[in-house]
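Design a sequence for this backbone.
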């Protein structure tokens, strides 16, 4: 059964709390895999409408599956392919309200209906992307975009501090 949609007020409240939790969680950890895994867990447990949350990390010019929560997913995506590869290439957040309407969308879970992908920098280099799927159409809007970009920025500052390369 699908969870009811979260309204804008609730969304903003959830993100406000997430900022506090995220900051303390990633500042208190030096191990990148632990830090990334908890970042994902925090997001997944905060929103009932997120069906899959995870990282794809850049390695040798491709995106490799990183820490995630949800069903098994494709482990490698070429740059420029799918929503993740397109976001990586453009270095821009992409909101897909209906995955069936995104040309080249890569299906990992046929129940997935909408998606958001946010690029993550580590210093001047692209580190990877944060990918979130939902079983609801149009689950993601500019509130998610703005807040997820801020969360990814907090993460990227930490990655820069840790001089981050994990794979
Ligand atoms: N749908 C993504 C592939 C990754 S899964 O959603 C986990 C894409 O088109 O890049």
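Sequence:
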């Amino acid at each position: 059964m699908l969870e009811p949609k979260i309204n804008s007020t609730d969304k903003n409240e959830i993100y406000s709390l997430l900022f506090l939790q995220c900051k303390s969680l990633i500042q208190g950890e030096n191990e990148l895999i632990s830090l990334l895994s908890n970042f994902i867990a925090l997001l997944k447990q905060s929103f009932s409408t997120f069906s899959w949350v995870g990282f794809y990390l850049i390695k040798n010019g491709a995106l490799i599956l990183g820490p995630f929560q949800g069903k098994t997913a494709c482990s490698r995506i070429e740059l420029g392919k799918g929503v993740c590869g397109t976001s990586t290439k453009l270095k821009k957040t992409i909101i897909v309200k209906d995955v069936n309407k995104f040309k080249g969308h890569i299906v990992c879970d046929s129940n997935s209906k909408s998606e958001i992908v946010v690029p993550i920098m580590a210093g001047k280099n692209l580190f990877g992307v944060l990918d979130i799927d939902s079983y609801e159409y149009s689950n993601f809007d500019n509130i998610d975009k703005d807040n997820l970009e801020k969360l990814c920025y907090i993460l990227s500052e930490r990655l820069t501090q840790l001089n981050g390369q994990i794979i």
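DSSP finds four helices and six strands in the chain.
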